[in-house]
Amino acid sequence: MSTIDSVLKENRLFPPSEDFRVKANVSGMEGYNALCEQANNDYEGFWADLGRELVSWKQPFTKVLNSTEAPFYKWFEDGTLNVSYNCLDRHLAGSGDKPAIIFEADDGTSTPVTYRELHQRVCQFANGLRSLGVKKGDRVVVYMPMGVEAVVAMQACARIGAIHSVVFGGFSAKSLQERIGDARASLVITANEGLRGGKSVPLQAVVDDALALGGCESIQHIVVFQRTQTAPAQWDARNVWWHELTAQQPTECEPEWMNAEDPLFILYTSGSTGKPKGIQHSSGGYLLGTLVTMKWVFDYKPDDVFWCTADVGWITGHSYVCYGPLAIGATQVVFEGIPTYPDANRFWSMIARHKVTTFYTAPTAIRSLIKLGADLPGQHDLSSLRLLGTVGEPINPEAWIWYHEVVGGGRCPIVDTWWQTETGAHMIAPLPGAVATKPGSCTLPLPGILADIVDESGAPVEPGKGGALVIKKPWPSMVRTIWGDPDRFKKTYFPEEFNGQLYLAGDSAHTDENGYIWIMGRIDDVLNVSGHRLGTMEIESALVANPLVAEAAVVGRPHEIKGEAVVAFVVLKQNRPEGEDAKRIARELREWVAHEIGKIAQPDEIRFGENLPKTRSGKIMRRLLRVIAKGEEITQDVSTLENPAILEQLRVSAL
Ligand code: 6R9
Description:
Its EC number is 6.2.1.1. The chain is α/β, with parallel strands linked by helices. It has a domain at 530-650: GMP Synthetase, Chain A, domain 3 (2-Layer Sandwich). It has 20 helices and 30 strands. Strands 12-11-8-6-7-14-15-23 form an 8-stranded mixed β-sheet, with helices on both faces. A 7-stranded mixed β-sheet has the order 5-4-17-16-18-19-20, sandwiched between helices. A 4-stranded antiparallel β-sheet has the order 21-22-24-25, with no helix packed on it. The longest helix has 18 residues, at 579-596. The radius of gyration is 24 Å and the shape is globular. It binds ligand 6R9. The site of ligand 6R9 has 23 residues, from helix 12, strand 20, strand 24 and strand 25.
């Protein structure tokens, strides 16, 4: 397992092969430097040129960047476009018969869907939504399994100007209810159930539970896609079957022409405090971000078969399943299932069967697949691969090398892409035909992205010194605001300490002697578990909401596969439980968290104490808890602790 130490010592360099370099969309460091220079000389002109080259506008823009209400930046504000038109219609003439999606179901059956068919399905569904009264600006919650229909649902919203808010299918009824309520959504799109790893996942039932919790009075309809034959337990007048809604709809649908700044979607993500934030993205700038990164970072070629394994419930699934690949006209694999079903060969067998050229996944998946069978990729023909990518968390050099050698046969560059829900698209990543890679580093910022690492005062730090990762200039695909909470947007991302001038990413990082960026982790109380962002506060609030719990503190601990594991320190209202009692309550609390937030937030460990270690002012000493969670010796001064004996209690895990 990597530690920060092993990352710091890592300096192997992997330049692109000559063959890759000459064919690449951005070729060699000359190519990369030339783009950076253009961006430096004329920042707005640089983005305007890309905007004109890559996006099809209904009404071309004349204005590029408007900073008068900074940090509420506007890009291409007088341009109009439709994102779904860009993803579908514009490919029909030249590539109507090209597969847009190769859908592989959980059971292994696969179905190609051409651009023409996808266009028809999106149009029919968009017409269906319109027939239910959905119009421009309305919020639509998508709570769907991975599949063609999830993409159709999102694209149909984009077509009619409705703002989608996709909620990952693993989130609980409570989380779903909060998101519906915050967005005041008028419609939910779901499926009767999903299928993952041979098991059914209830979806409509969770929607029913969410609505029953109250606070979702804005909902007028629930559209249900019938994925399996299981009949819904509940069906009322607001429910509509997907197939009935679309059956009679025309296969053409005039897109709603949107202003570049009109919101395309909201996606909720965890922050350090409070409720999840509704990250709001624009239509024009966001689309450009996905397109330019498909071209530069994924070095898109028309005969590529692209596969991003992310679920559409996360930003990666938005930008690199739903929008980027379609906008650029790619053929992509969309996968319903999980990497370990029917066995750990699944990914490798899919790459071989579909002749995938570009494969994009998370370090946590790579690590778990190494554990389940480091030699399995060797049993498949992976020669179609030409480019590999990772996202979501730092990748440890050992996993990187395995990915490079065993999956990529030593010939495929690895693009380690650093970005966030808020950035909309890749920000720091190697351009694979230009930038030599180093295992564990996301390398250099993309041209036009002004990343830096600064100290508390906002001054740049020297190479080798850690600091906060910031972006110094607005970029087209950036978050526009937090839905319904502009103040929080300003405070969180453009804080006063930096005069409101720098975008604060929330990650710490350092550069090395080559200017390569190494991400060290979050500086706030956000955990990264299997590449998913979880707020410690969210899990703590869920625990404290349990009638047994008096107090709870949650920290992360390094985990071999997941990156970070969730450790919860809990004080009960009753006496501190021990033995079997402690085990039973710990199990109950785990279930409780799954119920409150979703399985992804379940603590890996629960430790009970009579109290938590606190400072004199009553603040929980999280740093101490992190040390305890790791099982390390405490070297800090604990003399101010009221009751040092609780530290001993907290060393014992109940799970
Ligand atoms: C795309 C995505 C964002 C946070 C981010 C950082 C971590 C993402 C990374 C990475 C190191 C990478 N992160 N990519 N850390 N190297 N290549 O994951 O968005 O879910 O919003 O998470 O994930 O900590 O701040 P999101």
